[in-house]
Design goal:
Layout lengths: L2 E2 L7 E4 L7 H6 L13 E3 L4 E3 L6 E2 L5 H5 L1 E6 L12 H18 L8 E3 L14 H12 L10 E3 L3 E6 L3 E6 L2 E5 L4 H7 L4 E3 L2 H10 L2 E3 L2 H12 L1
Parallel strand pairs: 2-6, 2-7, 3-6, 4-8, 9-12, 11-13
Antiparallel strand pairs: 1-5, 3-4, 9-10, 10-11
This protein binds zinc ion (ZN).
The site of zinc ion has 5 residues, from loops.
GO biological process, one term: peptidoglycan turnover
EC number: 3.5.1.28
Organism: Streptococcus danieliae
Length: 231
């Protein structure tokens, strides 16, 4: 994940939308290896709260480094496309739980001053059609006990995906390192654990291969990586 440890005291939550309706595509954007250079701490969907960048690290979401240093960035999966860019009611509920949890831990009031939309920091269409006042209201309800279910289950995103290209075969990318997958059974082992697969152009494949440490996966490494995913 794109991040650094030059963190300041956290006193702000910044709300974003994916500008997209694919959860996998959104999270993939934040891997170092894509070279895009953005990231967020959380990705919220109707079913999941993904912990992407650790809260102790600076994520690159606000378009302003000073703000990034002191904020938590929460991304939301859209349920509709352009131009309405809505999010699902279940996503509001999950996000409200997450925000209530964050505000409790960082001792932040759940209000409009501490929870802002991306467009309040820089000129952007983000966070689309997300109603921040509604989100704050729902987070307040969680915090004051009006909503009973306050348990926040977070899943950790593993910075890992497989790639393939025409005339190139299959490789695994993890932590910016390129591994050739030579054994035909290996990719399936990873896919069975939910590791996404991306079809790329031969040129992109070659870029991944040259800019990273070229390595091969032996059985021991495969087993270790898969064991890590099962946690
Ligand atoms: Zn944004």
């Amino acid at each position: 994940m794109n991040a650094d440890s030059n963190r300041a005291t956290v006193n702000l939550i910044v709300i974003h939308h994916n500008a997209g309706t694919s959860d996998e595509n959104a999270r993939r954007t934040w891997y170092k290896s894509t070279g895009i250079g953005t990231s967020a701490h959380y990705q919220v969907t109707p079913t999941d709260i993904w912990g992407c960048v650790g809260e102790n690290y600076v994520a690159y979401h606000a378009g302003d480094y000073g703000v990034n240093q002191r904020s938590i960035g929460i991304e939301h999966l859209n349920s509709t496309g352009a131009r309405s860019w809505q999010i699902a009611e279940e996503t509001y509920k999950n996000s409200a739980k997450l925000i209530a949890d964050l505000c409790r831990r960082y001792k932040l009031p759940i209000d409009r001053k501490h929870i802002v939309g991306h467009r309040e920091i820089v000129a952007t269409a983000c966070p689309g059609g997300i109603d921040i006042d509604k989100l704050i209201r729902m987070a307040q309800e969680v915090a004051n006990g009006a909503v009973k279910e306050t348990k926040v289950e977070k899943k950790e995103v593993v910075d890992m995906f497989t790639i393939s290209a025409k005339d190139r075969g299959i490789a695994l990318m993890t932590g910016g390192v390129f591994y050739s997958l030579l054994d035909a059974k290996d990719p399936e082992n990873f896919w069975n654990q939910g590791v996404p697969h991306i079809q790329v152009s031969p040129k992109t494949f070659d870029n991944f291969q040259t800019k990273s440490n070229v390595d091969k996966l032996d059985d021991e490494t495969v087993n270790k990586l898969i064991a890590g995913l099962k946690k």
